[in-house]
What does this fold into?
Amino acid sequence: MLCEQIMMMIFGDDPVIQLFESADAPPNWIEVVDVENGEYQFCDDRGQRYVGEITRPSGVFRSAEWKLMPQGAPDIKNALDLIDKAKVLEPNPWFKDLESLRTHTTNRAHG
It folds into this structure.
């Protein structure tokens, strides 16, 4: 389990949380059109929300690019709300289930 590193969460229209390591490196399977449509919610385990912003529109010979940008002030409730909405935690190398993610996130808020 990670201790000091900030963990990123993604929540979509299905009740699944997926984890990734950094706001600087979101999963490459996310399609730009889904970012444009706001289909995912992003938050780190400290409660900082993020939104996807298009940094380069698509062109004839190039793909669009996007990145995650912080939105608002961190609040641990943001992270816990995503965990509470989820029914499943996608398999990952850090946490075995939603409860272990919730415990980590809650401890992070108090530590």
Observations:
- The first helix runs from residue 32 to 36.
- The chain has one domain: 8-110.
- The beta strands are 8-11, 16-20, 41-44, 49-56, 65-71, 88-89.
